[in-house]
Write a structure and sequence with these properties.
heterodimer; A: alpha/beta; Glutaredoxin; Ubiquitin-like (UB roll); 5 domains; 5-stranded mixed β-sheet; 20 strands; 37% helix; globular; B: 690 residues; alpha/beta; Alpha-Beta Plaits; 24 strands; 34% helix
Amino acid sequence: MSKATTVTKKGDGKGPVAAGKRRVIICAGTGCVSNGALKVYDAFMREMKENVLDFDVILKPESDNLHLSKSGCQGFCQMGPLVTILPDEIFYTKVTPNDVAEIVQKTLLKGEVVEWLLYNDPNTKQFCKGTHDIPFYQRQMRYVLKECGLIDPEDINEYISHRGYEGAKKAFLSMSAEDICKEILASGLRGRGGGGFPTGRKWDAARVQPGAKKYVICNGDEGDPGAFMDRSVMEGNPHSVIEGLMIAARAIGADEAYIYVRAEYPLAVKRMYKAVADAEAAGILGDNVFGTGQKMKCVVMEGAGAFVCGEETALIASIEGMRGMPVPKPPFPAQSGLWGKPTVINNVETLAQVPRILLDGADEYRKIGTATSPGTKTFALTGHVVNTGLIEVPFGTTLGEIVMNIGGGVTDDQGKITKDVFKAVQIGGPSGGCLTPDMLDLPLDFDSLRSVGAMVGSGGLVVMNQKTCMVSVARFFMEFTQRESCGKCVLCREGTKQLLSLLDDVIEGRATLETLSLMEQLGRAVQKGSLCGLGKTAPNPVLSTLKYFRHEYESHVIDKYCPTGRCKALAKPMINATKCKGCTLCVTVCPVGAITGGKKLPHKINQEVCIKCGACAAKCKFNAIEGV
Amino acid sequence: MTKKPVDNNVYINGRPVAIEGERNLLELIRKAGIDLPTFCYHSDLSVYGACRLCLVDIEGRGIVGSCSTPPEAGMRIKTHTEEIREIRKVSVELLLANHDNNCPTCYKSHNCQLQRIARQLGVEHVRFKSVLDRKPVDVSSPSVTRDPNKCVLCGDCVRVCSEIQEVGAIDFAYRGHQASVLPAFGKDLAEIECVNCGQCTVVCPTGALSPKSEMEEVWKDLTNPDLFVVACVAPAVRVGLGEPFDMEPGTITTGQMVASLKMLGFDQVYDTSFAADLTIFEEGNEFLQRKTKGEKLPQFTSCCPGWVKYAEQYYPELLDKLSTCKSPQQMFGALLKDRLPDLLGVAKEKLRIVSVMPCTAKKYEAKRPEFIHDGVADVDHVITTQELARMIKAAGILFNDLTPESFDMPFGFATGAGVLFGNSGGVTEAVLRFAAEKITGKPLQSFEFKQVRGESGLREAVMEIDGVQLKLAVVSGLKNAKTVAEQVRKGTCEYDIVEVMACPQGCIGGAGQPVSRNPLAKKMRTKGIYDADKMMPLHKSQENIFITECYEKFLGDIGGHKAHHLLHTHYQSRRRLPEEGIALFSGHGDQRLHVDVCLGTNCFLKGGQTILNGLLKHAEESKLENMVDVRASFCFEQCEEGPTVKIGEVTLNHATVDKAVDTLKSELEKQLSGAATAVSGCSAGCSSGK
């Protein structure tokens, strides 16, 4: 959606606009777009035209006019659509098209802040003028996402004006392939796709392979439920991915690159296509990269909707037009990958870090994060937490910092911050595991997470409160991996199916303690014996919940009781006599007349009659009804 | 690496085993005398790594699949750790929990790898509940039965079909627990490009793919006292039949075979090698004529029905180069149905011809409409070597103790040349024995042409006979056939004769032969055929006096009218599946005009869709629902002339909406006036069936 026309209506040249370079940035990440950000953008266009402001919609470095633009995801999706006014650094949240006139009149024309559109911190009840006042942003370090909330992702000039393609230029003009590999190796950059393999080593392995034809691939097939980190980078700063890919290509001697984008990300697909076309038109990609005579072809490919295609060998098979199924390694893609040629596959977030590492140097990069996991990591923070959205923190940030400070604390089912309701964090999606409240001091990095049976994965962080049934959580992820298993190897295909069936036994009250030990035996076999990463990590949600929440499983199995009441067959609604005020509200809503008790006296539920519908619990004002 | 490894060994469970060019650890481990179980590893196919049974623990690396790991000097591996034993057991139990475990009634019982491996690993009970989601069994194909309830998804069938045969009739579909091996779009095996070679049934470790049985039909005929049942046994059967009776592959069992067939109740037992000799007369003569005229070369053999269907599907433009000779099975069927009533005084309708073949495609061949006349097939039933062995066992016949008996005359008389048909290269050698004498006019010094023998799937030989140079290619495995066919298509092929057998190593490796775990089985059977040739009194088809007599008394000239009628056939393009097209507009009238609009890629791009919409609109507006059928069809292969529309008998190229509608109107008028005048025969001469 390139805005080819420049709107230059002349005003009187007075007012605050004339003072300096002002920008209105409307977040056009997927979250904000689905909340109506594009309508807000149109409203700004309309209002600004009518109010005779000098403004541009495409970047013109020489212009002092007000600049209206869209950006990629700014992270605070829950509060979108977001509108940022620069250089004032005013950050408006939940903006609707009806609010735009007021913003134009007050802020753009008079320099006033529209207070009620600012973020109101639920803890302090203070209005926060800019992102630097908001705890959600204060504790983050936006490195990969730095430009995401700022530049127009569809305008290559904006990227270039923010040091864009300087890293690639340096790589092509003044660095040898070996130098680049050395620099990346020295930076300690590790693959953000989940495994955490040192990127420099991967590149060097491909670099030393003989043969003239090599490939680089960007893995943009992010498929974890709830994860949208790569999506945000591709949508918000597509050129950074292309630049990283160019540097990778230069480092291994490849002249052809593929960007494999999940097809269910239409906006990312569109922006990647446009970014590649723009880079070609600018002579950055093509037959004469930066005038060096070197060739660099870049192809955007849409995935075909399979989670397993995030696995590198399956992804290669998919590009080759075959069914996305992993193949055994060795040979590794670095030896024999796409079309049998040496190939490097890197994740979106990994590649997006590369240009800056090359520009600032490995030492500078190593200042961020921990010794073994340098740099930052993006996470999709969701669940029972005040602030949800896309966050980026240095490796080594503790779990507590993320959940309590950036996330703003754990909430109950009604969204209220409540003490002592924190139960667990599921990290790493279907491949990951669960972390418990006693791990709040755990610094998050590749190695510490592995030591507790979880993994960074692609970076989903789901915070769960006490009302969450951990058996059901394990089942949710198991159902996902079972469905998404490619079906090739026995352990993954049949093992995940059986794990799911065993979990159902637990949930539906058929299980015994033997079921639990069988689940552990099977889980370990699947973990050890499966062909690819999907299978090897598929049992993690089950094994880690079995490890850390065994009492909850045992309650299901021995007492035939689901403490949260989420497993309907094992729900036993009971009235907490100390909380019950005897208001009789529950008696009136119970459809089967299972509740008895006198006024102002604690009530009781007749388990024989109760159908576990939960109507009483929903109605109770004192949270006295538990276990449903 | 600066340091040289001290030795060239891998330490398997602590014992050194030297690496001698093994491609993977599995080969090395098996060389060391440890038979690690596998479902998905076949040395002839690509490494797949899915069954997870060949796992080993490499010191410093952990558990990996041995099939996909190249051996490296100094590696220390363990093959049976507690952990690995547990993973293997879990894997087998998982498979058994998703398997139709009616083992006693399964066709593959006793030959089943799942059964064998479960026993080998000591799986005594299955800890998991059955999650089998029962699916229908595909019995549509005359050759292969597909039972998805027994599939372990090892993919062996998929790879043999695509890597060895380059057909790719089946592949994986769906994900997770729904994953299955299927023909495209879930069609039945009978409707697709499957060439019926049955090689998938050879590699299938379970009963998921098995040769379609015709035993019951044969039993019924044998036990019907009114019928006269004749067995015709193919050459390769005699060197395979001993295996189910614990004999070495390649053991020549001709005598016991004939005896057992007689004991089963066959009234006459004939040797298909006789028909092979007859084929040499016809095909040799056909070749000499083509060679003299220099036309339709190379001459491809046509004995193998798998190859014939392959050629019809993928190389219809080369069909004129196929010998027009029927296969020995079909020549024999036609000849016997014609001659036996006279010779033996049996009414034709009471005569039943049963072929015993090493082949599943022969079952399909016998059912081709060209070989069925007025509802009577030239060959009534085809059973495989496997099925014959089962019938012998079912009848309680102690095969190993039988006193040998001989074939019945005259159709049990054959030369060694006819027997050679069982081997890849056999037809070529038999033709050479015939043609060399025809060209030189002198008897051959030595009858063996060892130049055309060998194990490779694509062999060639050049020989000069009396100044005539003959270039020959011997091909087995359809992937190799494709290589030659592509050369012919490009005009770079210089061969005179190309012998094609669909199955690797020819008929002795056919899917009807007993399934053997002996890696040398095919080699041993090949040797058995050459030995059988040596043991025959005669080695050249032209020495078969009964065939000479046949021509004199009955057939007339070689390649003459009668011979042509009985012994030759024709082929048809099968480039397109018999697809109906997608009916978009149709009603109930009796004499509806068929309109097919090509929506192949080319026509679609040139506006096929617009024409289709135009025609549909016209048909609707003019209320033609009971007068026309409009269908979206697939490629008519007239892409350059597109868009193409067929309206009744008219093929409209470079069509437009207006042209199409005009033609439709005029054709409808014609039809109406035609119907009004008289019922006339089809002007296009449809009786030819084309």
